[in-house]
Amino acid sequence: ADGRDLAGRHVVVSAGGTREPLDPVRFIGNRSSGLQGYALARTAVARGARVTLVSANVALPDPAGVEVVRVGSAVEMREAVLSAAAGADAVVMAAAVADFRPVDYRESKIKKADGAEPDPIRLVKNPDILAELGDIRRPDQVIVGFAAETDDVLANGRAKLARKRSDLLVVNQVGEDLAFGRPDNAAIILGADGSRTDVPRGAKEALAESVWDLVAARLDRRPAG
Ligand code: C5P
């Protein structure tokens, strides 16, 4: 990639993992560290982009030169991503968004009652932010999703790419060797145009650069927004 190929572009990156609150002190969460999303934000700045980073529950310092918007839950992430995406050239959804949230939020801490069994936690589906971006996208935008698959990685990846109407889907193979919290990652990047890019195991920065290579190539082919 040539150095400043994202100059003049505004990109939105989501990072981390959402927390779905049960009561003022408890939530349902996941193990996403935010490392991949932060690597995407840093590398985009280095390539000249203006970057909005929508960050959910990440314990990492703010990357220099990035506008960081902090969110907690999937519903908050949807608000922040959709509002930033409206004027953006590209959106990369690297965050682990909870598929479900508790139906009820208790305003006061849930107590254990003597002898009584706890109430079951009932869940409701969260909005699929990536699918929504695929629906409302302008033709000149580039939309990128991430997917962690354990089996049938390619078939499941292709199906997900089509279902969510993204331009690119970064598919991580997960298994014993989870990508979560590790500094390195390996992936296959599938394109809606049928392309396939294999990124060997390496630093999350290297995967981020491969993502921006593919995004920049697609932006160059499209009329400016
Ligand atoms: O369907 P799945 O959760 O595997 O899709 C993963 C991709 O979709 C990621 O890019 C993630 O950020 C995004 N996603 C989303 N909203 C959800 C669930 C996932 O944007 N509710």
Automatic annotation (TrEMBL):
<dbReference type="GO" id="GO:0010181">
    <property type="term" value="F:FMN binding"/>
</dbReference>
<dbReference type="GO" id="GO:0015937">
    <property type="term" value="P:coenzyme A biosynthetic process"/>
</dbReference>
<keyword id="KW-0285">Flavoprotein</keyword>
<feature type="binding site">
    <location>
        <begin position="127"/>
        <end position="130"/>
    </location>
    <ligand>
        <name>CTP</name>
    </ligand>
</feature>
<keyword id="KW-0436">Ligase</keyword>
<dbReference type="GO" id="GO:0015941">
    <property type="term" value="P:pantothenate catabolic process"/>
</dbReference>
<feature type="domain" description="DNA/pantothenate metabolism flavoprotein C-terminal">
    <location>
        <begin position="6"/>
        <end position="217"/>
    </location>
</feature>
<feature type="binding site">
    <location>
        <position position="160"/>
    </location>
    <ligand>
        <name>CTP</name>
    </ligand>
</feature>
<dbReference type="GO" id="GO:0004632">
    <property type="term" value="F:phosphopantothenate--cysteine ligase activity"/>
</dbReference>
<keyword id="KW-0511">Multifunctional enzyme</keyword>
<feature type="binding site">
    <location>
        <position position="99"/>
    </location>
    <ligand>
        <name>CTP</name>
    </ligand>
</feature>
<feature type="binding site">
    <location>
        <position position="164"/>
    </location>
    <ligand>
        <name>CTP</name>
    </ligand>
</feature>
<keyword id="KW-0460">Magnesium</keyword>
<comment type="similarity">
    <text>In the N-terminal section; belongs to the HFCD (homo-oligomeric flavin containing Cys decarboxylase) superfamily.</text>
</comment>
<keyword id="KW-0479">Metal-binding</keyword>
<dbReference type="GO" id="GO:0071513">
    <property type="term" value="C:phosphopantothenoylcysteine decarboxylase complex"/>
</dbReference>
<dbReference type="GO" id="GO:0046872">
    <property type="term" value="F:metal ion binding"/>
</dbReference>
<comment type="function">
    <text>Catalyzes two sequential steps in the biosynthesis of coenzyme A. In the first step cysteine is conjugated to 4'-phosphopantothenate to form 4-phosphopantothenoylcysteine. In the second step the latter compound is decarboxylated to form 4'-phosphopantotheine.</text>
</comment>
<comment type="function">
    <text>Catalyzes two steps in the biosynthesis of coenzyme A. In the first step cysteine is conjugated to 4'-phosphopantothenate to form 4-phosphopantothenoylcysteine, in the latter compound is decarboxylated to form 4'-phosphopantotheine.</text>
</comment>
<keyword id="KW-0210">Decarboxylase</keyword>
<keyword id="KW-0288">FMN</keyword>
<feature type="binding site">
    <location>
        <position position="109"/>
    </location>
    <ligand>
        <name>CTP</name>
    </ligand>
</feature>
<feature type="binding site">
    <location>
        <position position="146"/>
    </location>
    <ligand>
        <name>CTP</name>
    </ligand>
</feature>
<protein>
    <recommendedName>
        <fullName>Coenzyme A biosynthesis bifunctional protein CoaBC</fullName>
        <ecNumber>4.1.1.36</ecNumber>
        <ecNumber>6.3.2.5</ecNumber>
    </recommendedName>
</protein>
<feature type="region of interest" description="Phosphopantothenate--cysteine ligase">
    <location>
        <begin position="11"/>
        <end position="225"/>
    </location>
</feature>
<dbReference type="GO" id="GO:0004633">
    <property type="term" value="F:phosphopantothenoylcysteine decarboxylase activity"/>
</dbReference>
<comment type="pathway">
    <text>Cofactor biosynthesis; coenzyme A biosynthesis; CoA from (R)-pantothenate: step 2/5.</text>
</comment>
<comment type="pathway">
    <text>Cofactor biosynthesis; coenzyme A biosynthesis; CoA from (R)-pantothenate: step 3/5.</text>
</comment>
<keyword id="KW-0456">Lyase</keyword>
<comment type="similarity">
    <text>In the C-terminal section; belongs to the PPC synthetase family.</text>
</comment>
